[in-house]
Amino acid sequence: MGRAPCCEKMGVKRGPWTPEEDQILINYINLYGHSNWRALPKHAGLLRCGKSCRLRWINYLRPDIKRGNFTPQEEQTIINLHEVLGNRWSAIAAKLPGRTDNEIKNIWHTHLKKRLNKDQNNNGGVTKDLNRTNETTHEDKESVIVDTTSTQQFRTLQISNNNNADAMMSYEDISAMVDESFWSDVISVDNKNSTEKTMEDWEGLLDRNSKIYSYNNSKLYNDDMEFWFEVFSSSRRIEEFSDVAEF
DNA sequence: AAGTATTTCAACCGCAAACCA
DNA sequence: TTGGTTTGCGGTTGAAATACT
């Protein structure tokens, strides 16, 4: 017997989200958090599947999302990390506060990959074969690292596509970066007092917001900025990526 | 101005990992 | 240990926007 679909295909809305749906989702998550995505749409009164709600929140509605174009520094960071990590977009996103894996994936496919291919053609093969790099799976990359460990060598890997000495990282740094636990911190704006809330609170809020269409999330935004600042300032290794956009 | 081609990016899909009873 | 459920990830799609003819 096959696995149950993630959501009911019938009676579930698809496609672009409306501002009203966004508001309902934001309000609900700020009251109750998102401990159960599957149950969330039902409780919030949204005709969406949990997966869709999660994606919308993570990629668009989260208060710490940074909107606007990528800076040259951010683009260079993506290029550098992609050489090390491959298509591990969520891992790359973890290094770029306010940017989502989906956004980074899009920017890579629409801009950066093309630009790198162009640069490569212009340099007549002097630079690294970036196409080969793109085809390399992260398993390939990790196997290289394991081999390096076995010989107790501390090779350095050049992760930049130019000869900038500042971009050289030791094996220790690389392996720390690809350690799964390193990436596993979860960003959450769950309301810790959510269990104290009641559905009456929620319904009341919905009612109020149907009249007043505004939302102030500055407190949450600031909290997340502090969170990210803490993460960055406490990680010695991240100094290697000091070109990441500052706040 | 109209039609066509190309680009962008939000959203969906399927799979695998993580979780839990 | 097992099997069902939920979450998270990366690949892909397709509608809308933009560029080009």
TrEMBL record:
PROSITE patterns reported for this sequence: HTH_MYB (PS51294), MYB_LIKE (PS50090)
Record flagged with keyword Nucleus: yes
Subcellular location: Nucleus
Stretches assigned to the Myb-like domain: 9-61, 62-112
The keyword Ribonucleoprotein appears for this protein: no
Major subcellular site: nucleus
Signal peptide: none
GO CC annotations, alphabetized: nucleus
Taxonomic superkingdom: Eukaryota
Cross-referenced Pfam families: Myb_DNA-binding
Keyword annotations from UniProtKB, A to Z: DNA-binding, Nucleus, Repeat
A GO MF term: DNA binding
Boundaries of every HTH myb-type domain copy: 9-61, 62-116
CDD domains cross-referenced by the UniProt entry: SANT (cd00167)
PANTHER family: (RAPE) HYPOTHETICAL PROTEIN, MYB FAMILY TRANSCRIPTION FACTOR
Name by which UniProt lists this protein: Transcription factor MYB14-like
Gene coding for it: LOC108845922
